[in-house]
């Protein structure tokens, strides 16, 4: 019997997750919650751009709570803990890229209680945080002993990120440095990345200072830089860097860094990706030291459609091709697809886990499944 899975929100991650569910031999699509009124009642196949699936989207949470389903992949724009608790209480396992990666006992408490009441499990995952920032460095660290330092770093060109509102109003691109540095981004990122750092320090056994040190830097344009928010004027923020660091006796032992650049030209300071280009990079110092570089999860400027692109509508984060919020076009950024895949592939293990909140440190080894035509 296949596990029945509901997709909660059909943005970039949600659409990729539905496609992943349809390809996974142990899963079947049971339903979809949508935020946008225009998608309400539509066949999910129509929303994701395939033929009809006979599964219809709803914007009623009550409909989803009443549905007979094993799991929900919860991927809305912003997490609502009460919503997640209700899903758990209704007896549905929840897998999500929007939080609860490695929550403290206090952060986890209300959701653990809901999960226990529903006899199900909550699991936070993703790509970064949720993959290259902690899970994969930890997995790779098994090839070393006497570890002294772990670094996880993202290098991305945000000219492929076609979400102008998010870039401008949330991420602070195009703002003055002061405004960007005091904006919401650091706090929004802290939640997930501090959990990622703590997962590394706890698992590796560093006697780290409980305070994770955070820092941010900006680079400004020195000439107009074309971007998804239009030209970024000289003096305005065109690149951002965020760091999270755990220390032992003042020395760094785990560091996660995110480098987000609007290209590599006309920046002050003159930041670049270096010869390696866009990538995720993981380094372990111990016996031996090594570095692993992963490519393929970042699109290149000029690619047809970037992550969560909005074409021709104010419908939040959906990829649509017409003013009536029509069918989905283009393909999502590989990083978005990877995030969705991590959720989808985790569902069987999460459904089989003991009730509560389960992190990577609790779940068994999880992998993808072969394509249907090869299995
Ligand atoms: N951990 C990671 O590595 C990672 C990676 C990628 C994304 N994420 C997170 O995953 C989530 C989904 O990302 P995405 O790329 O799919 O985003 P997205 O393309 O912007 O889609 C988000 C969806 O949320 C729904 N939505 C819009 N406004 C909403 C509102 N006010 N309240 C509730 N739902 C609303 C919409 O669903 P409908 O279209 O169905 O109406 C929208 O399509 C985000 O929170 C993102 O930060 C995490």
Automatic annotation (TrEMBL):
User: Which Pfam families does this entry report, sorted A to Z?
Assistant: DAP_DH_C
Q: Which superkingdom?
A: Bacteria
Record Gene3D superfamilies:
NAD(P)-binding Rossmann-like Domain
Tell me which residues make up the 2,4-diaminopentanoate dehydrogenase C-terminal domain: 140-256, 333-368
The record's listing under SUPFAM superfamilies reads: NAD(P)-binding Rossmann-fold domains
- Know the name of this protein? Dihydrodipicolinate reductase
């Amino acid at each position: 019997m296949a596990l029945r899975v509901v997709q909660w929100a059909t943005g970039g991650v949600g659409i990729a997750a539905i496609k992943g569910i349809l390809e996974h031999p142990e899963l079947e699509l049971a339903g979809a919650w949508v935020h946008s009124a225009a998608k309400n009642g539509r066949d999910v196949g129509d929303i994701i751009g395939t033929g009809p699936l006979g599964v219809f989207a709803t914007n009623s949470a009550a409909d989803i709570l009443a549905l007979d389903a094993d799991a929900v992949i919860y991927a809305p724009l912003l997490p609502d803990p009460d919503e997640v608790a209700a899903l758990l209480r209704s007896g549905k396992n929840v897998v999500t890229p929007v939080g609860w990666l490695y929550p403290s006992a206090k952060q986890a408490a209300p959701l653990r209680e809901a999960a226990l009441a529903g006899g199900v499990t909550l699991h936070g995952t993703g790509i970064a945080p949720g993959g290259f920032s902690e899970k994969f460095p930890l997995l790779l660290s098994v090839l070393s002993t006497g570890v002294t330092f772990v670094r996880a770093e993202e290098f991305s060109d945000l000219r492929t990120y076609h979400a102008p509102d998010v870039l401008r109003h949330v991420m602070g691109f195009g703002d003055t440095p002061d405004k960007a540095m005091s904006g919401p981004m650091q706090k929004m990122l802290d939640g997930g990345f501090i959990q990622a750092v703590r997962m590394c320090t706890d698992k590796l056994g560093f006697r780290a200072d409980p305070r994770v040190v955070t820092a941010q830097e900006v680079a400004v344009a020195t000439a107009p830089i074309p971007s998804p928010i239009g030209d970024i004027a000289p003096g305005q923020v065109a690149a951002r860097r965020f760091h999270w660091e755990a220390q032992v006796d003042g020395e760094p032992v785990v560091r996660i860094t995110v480098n987000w650049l609007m290209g590599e030209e006309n920046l002050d300071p003159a930041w670049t990706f270096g010869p390696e280009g866009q990538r995720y990079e993981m380094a372990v110092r111990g016996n031996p030291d090594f570095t692993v570089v992963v490519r393929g999860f970042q699109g290149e400027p000029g690619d047809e459609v970037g992550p969560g692109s909005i074409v021709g509508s104010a419908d939040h984060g959906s990829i649509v091709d017409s003013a009536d919020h029509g069918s989905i076009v283009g393909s999502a950024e590989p990083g978005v697809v990877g995030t969705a895949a991590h959720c989808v592939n985790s569902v069987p293990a999460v459904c089989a886990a003991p009730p509560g909140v389960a992190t990577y440190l609790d779940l068994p080894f999880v992998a993808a499944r072969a394509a249907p035509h090869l299995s």
